[in-house]
Amino acid sequence: MAEESVLIITSEKGKASVEEEVKGKLHEVVRKAARKALELWDLTKSDFIIIRDKYPVELKLPITKEEYEIYSKYNLRRAGPRVATFDLPVYIISYDNEWIHENYKDYRVLVVVPKVDEKITEELINWAAEITLEEAEFEEENY
Question: pTM of the full predicted structure?
Fold first, then answer.
């Protein structure tokens, strides 16, 4: 995998921000972020979990040649007459969490994801914030 711009997003109790933007190979940046999170992890209180997932992105067509070159690395495909989608690889590193009865709750996570553009970065920051949002806050926002 070639070097690319990778974001490390910190999310804690419903607030998220880009902690760091680094140039490197995605998998190496994930390992570096995991080592950092491991140092912050209280193994007496929570699990340490790394989840590999995909963040779906929908685009309006047409796109520029530069955008095509970036997005095509992530399974870019047509989804409709003027719509395309691609799947951005994302890693969620949870190091402060707990089980409450049958429910799992993240309090602090790092999200590691390739940077493709500012609009998608903002979406990812909002998405990362939702991961650690308190349930009552989440319910209020959706009404």
Answer: 0.90
